[in-house]
Amino acid sequence: MLDDLNELKTFQKILAEGSLSGAARALGTSLAVVSKRLATLERRTGVRLVNRTTRSLSPTEEGARFLVHVDSALEALLAAEEGLVRGRDEPVGLLRVSAPVTLGRRHVAPVLGDLCRRHSQLSVSLTLNDLLSDLVGEGIDVAVRIGVPAESSAVMRKLAANERILVASPDYLDRVGRPSHPSELKSHILLGHLTVATPWALAGPGGEQHRLTAEPRFCVDNGDAILDWALAGHGIMNKSQLDVAEDLGTGRLERVLPAWTAGNRPIVALFPSARHLPTKTRVFLDEMVKRLSM
C-alpha cells in the first residue's frame, strides 16, 4: 500500500512539474525511480496515463480523469493526518467551490473569506458561473445552486428555503406604473436570464396561477448583469429573493406584485459523495446554512 501511495504522489508530481526530471527533483529522488513508479502505475491500471515526447509531457484523457481522483484522495489523506497531528478536526487543503454569480459574490465569497481567516491551513478556489458545473470533471468539491437540478448524480443538501420574486427599481415603477395583477405585465419591460424558463409561472393569492407569455426584452446569461439593469431602471426582473434582499432593504429595489411569487427555488449544495465527507466541505456547508438563515 505504501508503494501504491508513492506511485500516486509521483504521478501527481509528474503532471504538476511537467516532466519526469522535475518530479524527481521535487520528490528528492532519482529519475529512474520516478520512471519506474509511473510504469508500474500504468501497468497496474492497464492504461497509459501520460503522453511523453522528447519535448513535452501531458496527461492522456484517462490520466486527466484519474488525476482528479488522485488529488482528492491525497488531499483527504493530508487532511486526516493534519487532524491527527493537531488532535482536532481542522479544515485543511484546497476547497474548490462553484456558485452562481450573484449568490456567489454576496453570500458564498464572504463565507469562504471568513473560513480562511479562521483556518490558516485552508485555501479556497471559487468559480462563479450561472451554469451547473461538472463536479468530477472540473474537480469541484461543492457546487452551490439555486433550485434542485433536474438531473444530477451528486449528493444534495438543502442550505436554505428561497423564493423567486419580481422586483424593479422605484424609478422604473414611478415612470411606467406599478402593476396590480400579472396580466398588466405585458405592458412592462421584462429582464430575463437565459437559463430561467419562460414563460414565467406566477402563483398568487388563493392558489391563483398565471403564466406570463411575454418574452423578456433584455436577456443575458449573467445574474449580476440582470441586477445591474434592474437597478438602472430598465425593467422588471424575476430574481431569487436572497439575491435581492439587501437591495430591497435599502430601497434600491422594490418588490413588484408582492402577493405573487415566481416559484420556490431552494438554495442547495451538490457534492460528489457523502461518504467520508472532508472536514473542509462539512465546515463550509455548516457555515453556509448559518449565513443564509440570518
Give a short summary of the structure:
With 294 residues, this protein is an alpha/beta fold. 42% of the residues lie in helices and 22% in strands.
Describe it.
With 294 residues, the protein is of the alpha/beta class. The chain folds into 3 domains: 2-82, Arc Repressor Mutant, subunit A (Orthogonal Bundle), CATH 1.10.10.10; 89-161 and 266-292, 3-Layer(aba) Sandwich (D-Maltodextrin-Binding Protein, domain 2), CATH 3.40.190.10; 164-256, D-Maltodextrin-Binding Protein, domain 2 (3-Layer(aba) Sandwich). It is 42% helix and 22% strand. The protein contains 9 helices and 14 strands. The protein has helices at residues 2-17, 20-27, 31-45, 61-86, 101-118, 170-176, 223-231, 241-250, 279-292; strands spanning 50-52, 57-59, 93-99, 122-128, 142-146, 155-160, 164-168, 190-193, 200-203, 209-212, 218-220, 236-240, 254-256, 267-271. It has a 5-stranded mixed beta sheet with strand order 4-3-5-14-6. β1 and β2 (57-59) form a beta hairpin. α1 crosses α2. 32% of the residues are buried.
